[in-house]
Amino acid sequence: MKERIKSLVLASLVAASLVQSYFLIYRLPGGGDSIVTSETNYVKTENMGQERDIEELIFPDQMMIHLGEDKHTVFYPGNTFYQLIYSRLQGRTFDDFQRRTVQSVNWDQIRKDNPGIELSFKEGIPVALLQRVMRLGTDSLFQGETINRISIYTAKNETKAHALFFSAKGDVVYEATQADLTVQDVQQHVDFGTNWTPYTLMDGGYYIPAEALDAVEADVPTGQFTVEQMQRSLFFDPSMTRNIREKDGSEIYTDSKRSLQVKQDQRWISYTDPAAPPAGQIDAAKDALSAVDFVNQHGGWKGRSRMMLDTADNKTQLQFQQYYGSFPIMDSVQFRFGTISMEMQQETVSSYERSLEYLNEGAETKKSVKLPGGDKLKALIQKVAGESRQVVDVYPAYRPSTIEGGLKLIPVWVIRFSNGEETTVS
């Protein structure tokens, strides 16, 4: 009997030892190759910023309201009418898509002649992600597309509304022949823009206000994540990292596999993981979901951001641009702020860049300013574009500059050219 009890106790001790060893190896930092599995699942680290769902990061950069007779206005994110119209459209169903070439209809003429709403997703959103914020039916051709513009309009003497989804490739457009939007629904949305600032549709397909645009200049206090916080967030065992100081004053922390470069003068970090899986077939939607999950667990979000996505060289490149009020905050080579940049391979982060500095909204001081419009803005655009550069977009944004204890956010017009370059005027 005693021998049986001893055997049971010994077996229990062995089992407990095995369980303890499992948790030490597979659950704690420093446990060998199994850490890759934990990292892929992006284990939660120190709580720094807020978490976000991907649905909060997908929204149009501009909403154009077409009033007919070549009259237009533009709503920007955060505007009350923008939020109202967008939330209503998100509750509608669009299905049974028919494909046609873009050249089959004069779309510019439709924008000028017919009342309607146009949503701009500048860089394009894969349908698989757009389905997370809008009720879109499934279709084998449509499912594989990336959409950069949605146009909903009514035509004279027709009893139903048209809903068009434009491919970011620029060659085809899909019409939802089944859409639970009536002509009256569209007209009600259009009426919200009747007494708003009038905009002019320019030859390049962009819009400018016919008069000066009301804007806000703000002095916003800032906080800052510490390098130690980022180390704890990005390395499973920060004590195992070593520090390398570069000639340009930046510092690199590495665990021999991953590296974290800190540029103190710009308060900017760049994290790279060369051990990401080799390039393969791209699934941009899955990459985007993994990217959002990674940010949620490694730094989090400060303020509201909009997702921009591109695929190139068998990788998914993402940018999350921060907004203040209705306008995005510019990120430039001279002043890095406001953008989280990521590169994904097979749903795994290969690079991650962001500012250590963040806005403490709620304690800022503001003043009303005017951004030029009409002929004055046209002259400014002509001056910077000259005869050789084609303008494809003009939009308002904030240019940040350093002040004591924070940032000054200065409203500007951003002019984008066909080659992707941008410049500002104000």
TrEMBL record:
Q: Which InterPro entries match?
A: YycH (IPR009996), YycH/YycI_2 (IPR042274)
Q: Where does the Regulatory protein YycH domain lie?
A: 3-418
Q: Cite a single Pfam family from the UniProt record.
A: YycH
Q: Which domain of life is it from?
A: Bacteria
Q: What is this protein called?
A: Regulatory protein YycH domain-containing protein
The scientific name of the source species is Paenibacillus xylanilyticus
